Amino acid sequence: MVESSTGGYPIPITVEFTGGLELLFGNERKHKVVLPAQLEDGSPPNISYLLGYLVDNLMQDQRKDMFIMEDSVRPGVLVLINDADWELEGEDAYELQAGDTIVFVSTLHGG
Amino acid sequence: MPRGTFGFSRASFSVFARVNVMGSLEETCVSLRAQISATEEQLAGLKRDLALAEAQTERENQETRGRWPLLPEEYKRYGRQMIVSQVGLQGQLKLRSAKVLLVGAGGLGCPAAQYLAGAGVGTIGLIDGDTVEVSNLHRQVLHRTANVGKYKVDSAIESLRDLNPHPKYVAHRTHLTPEESPAIFKDYDIILDCTDNPATRYLISDTAVLCGKPLVSASALRTEGQLMVLNNPPRAPSDKTGGPCYRCVFPKPPPADSVVSCADGGIIGPVVGTMGVLQALEAIKVITAPEVVEGTARPRDPPSLHIFSAYSSPLVRTIRLRSRRANCAVCSAEATVSLDTIKSGSTDYVFFCGSASLPSLLSPEERISAREYNQKYSVPSGSPPSHTVIDVRDEAQFGICSLKNSINIPISSVLASNYAKPAHGQEANQIPPWVPPELANNTDSTSPIYVVCRLGNDSQIVVKKMKELGLDQHGKRFIGDISGGLRSWKEQVDPEWPEY
């Protein structure tokens, strides 16, 4: 891996969508994403940055509010950081590490 | 409610007949009050008789049981699960004295109830106001074809009795309402949420927390299912050692237009069946769990969400959930929801969850009824006037049935296009890839374009998009939709059209 001019190695992570959210992302559940080691302001990328990155780069459906509302995930979507509720890990301030798996789950209601 | 309710309705009918003869409203009230108090007295008498009869039966059962706590037939029937160490005789006795309420007798409730009845749960309550439809049968495995039209709870109990006559089955032929939920829940030990909409899910969770009942909640759609055991252990609100509730995990309901039902999104039978069976399993685990002795640290399963995904590997993934939320509206010290606010209606679940608004995007001039379309374009001989029909249902639905000469452009591909709307005053000269070549290459044609879908909602969105792209040549070319979609086509034009 090449060290970038901003310092540090890029951060490869896995992003998964389930519960119907995959339909907003080209009907693909699993995506490999590589994030820069540092953002322009020098800070490391966190979940908050990832949300914007996904909307700008990976989301194909135009209905952004099916995924993001008020700068966070919309109600009814759980964010899982390495198989734990993001609320156990610091929510959107969690700083991403190489190899992390971030899963977005939309709740189902059928029965 | 037993069949006797018919007797009541006949009685009140005759009251009204008499009332009309008497004429005076005041006399009517007096008479009705007298009737009510007489009926109430009669009801109280019946309840006393029932309690006595039940006590007598229990005594007789104990006598026949003699020195063994179970009947000979029960040892045989439940032997295969009783010899599993996690159940044992103690577990079986706990199952027999357990009272389980299943809210919903559909895709989740049927398999869940089937396994709980089979396992010998003593009292099984079922609540559902729906009747059996043919489209339920592929997954709602307790219902028989002959029972289409019957109340689901009656149909389900009929099957359950065939399977195991020992349990007591209680039928609630109604949808769960906030007014009634506390009174119903208090008679049970554990609740299974087998429903299909957010408003009822919040109502069930809130009532379960406030009545101190553990809750096994599941849901399913298309190829996926989700399962959680909530409020376990069921401690008092404000006690942080209790398990989280539905509101702790989902404090805000999802936007109503993001909620997809099995009728719209589809469901594979064994997917929802798996989730129902897992609910029964979790209920059995909760019921038969050994008592936790205070002070001994027996680690409980941490609160988890299990996600089943039929086309992924592994099939099930388990996620650690948060514990109780410090500011939860129901189970925290700051709770604002109580049994009183639920019963009185001041906790308004319908308002809280909202309802999907389906605004009419198009004006009446931009729409054509299925009948009109048919009159215009179904000519008995020769070829119909030139026009284009675009069907925006997804590929699977288009493959089931489609209008002659229609083109399939799924709405997902229209919405996925990153094509930006042209700025004001700028000519639309970029055509996104989903526009079929015959339209993209022939932008001067004025032959009309009709968009159709299943119910007439998505078609409106696509008409709007096409107009934004300038395909209507500033109004020179008609673009509109068939209002009411293919459902109207069946109603107005072709009764043999398949309804799926």
From TrEMBL, chain A:
Gene3D superfamilies: 3.10.20.30. The gene is URM1. SUPFAM superfamilies: MoaD/ThiS. C-terminal thiocarboxylation occurs in 2 steps, it is first acyl-adenylated (-COAMP) via the hesA/moeB/thiF part of UBA4, then thiocarboxylated (-COSH) via the rhodanese domain of UBA4. Coiled coil: none annotated. The lineage of its organism: Eukaryota, Fungi, Dikarya, Ascomycota, Pezizomycotina. There is a cross-link at residue 111 (Glycyl lysine isopeptide (Gly-Lys) (interchain with K-? in acceptor proteins)). InterPro entries: Beta-grasp_dom_sf, Mopterin_synth/thiamin_S_b, Urm1. It is found in: Cytoplasm. The modification 1-thioglycine is found at residue 111. Belongs to the URM1 family. Its main location: cytoplasm. Pathway: tRNA modification; 5-methoxycarbonylmethyl-2-thiouridine-tRNA biosynthesis. This is Ubiquitin-related modifier 1. GO terms for biological process: protein urmylation; tRNA thio-modification; tRNA wobble uridine modification.
From TrEMBL, chain B:
It is found in: Cytoplasm, Cytosol. Keywords: ATP-binding, Coiled coil, Cytoplasm, Metal-binding, Molybdenum cofactor biosynthesis, Multifunctional enzyme, Nucleotide-binding, Nucleotidyltransferase, Transferase, tRNA processing, Ubl conjugation pathway, Zinc. The active site is at 262 (glycyl thioester intermediate), 453 (cysteine persulfide intermediate). One of its GO terms (biological process) is tRNA wobble position uridine thiolation. Its cofactor is Zn(2+). CDD domains: ThiF_MoeB_HesA_family (cd00757). ATP binds at residues 107, 128, 135-139, 152, 196-197. Pathway: tRNA modification; 5-methoxycarbonylmethyl-2-thiouridine-tRNA biosynthesis; Cofactor biosynthesis; molybdopterin biosynthesis. Residues 22-63 form a coiled coil. It catalyses: [molybdopterin-synthase sulfur-carrier protein]-C-terminal Gly-Gly + ATP + H(+) = [molybdopterin-synthase sulfur-carrier protein]-C-terminal Gly-Gly-AMP + diphosphate; [molybdopterin-synthase sulfur-carrier protein]-C-terminal Gly-Gly-AMP + S-sulfanyl-L-cysteinyl-[cysteine desulfurase] + AH2 = [molybdopterin-synthase sulfur-carrier protein]-C-terminal-Gly-aminoethanethioate + L-cysteinyl-[cysteine desulfurase] + A + AMP + 2 H(+). SUPFAM superfamilies: Activating enzymes of the ubiquitin-like proteins. Zn(2+) binds at residues 245, 248, 328, 331. InterPro entries: MOCS3/Uba4, Rhodanese-like_dom, Rhodanese-like_dom_sf, ThiF/MoeB/HesA, ThiF_NAD_FAD-bd, Ubiquitin-activating_enz. Plays a central role in 2-thiolation of mcm(5)S(2)U at tRNA wobble positions of cytosolic tRNA(Lys), tRNA(Glu) and tRNA(Gln). Also essential during biosynthesis of the molybdenum cofactor. Acts by mediating the C-terminal thiocarboxylation of sulfur carriers urm1 and mocs2a. Its N-terminus first activates urm1 and mocs2a as acyl-adenylates (-COAMP), then the persulfide sulfur on the catalytic cysteine is transferred to urm1 and mocs2a to form thiocarboxylation (-COSH) of their C-terminus. This is Adenylyltransferase and sulfurtransferase uba4. It comes from Penicillium salamii. The lineage of its organism: Eukaryota, Fungi, Dikarya, Ascomycota, Pezizomycotina.
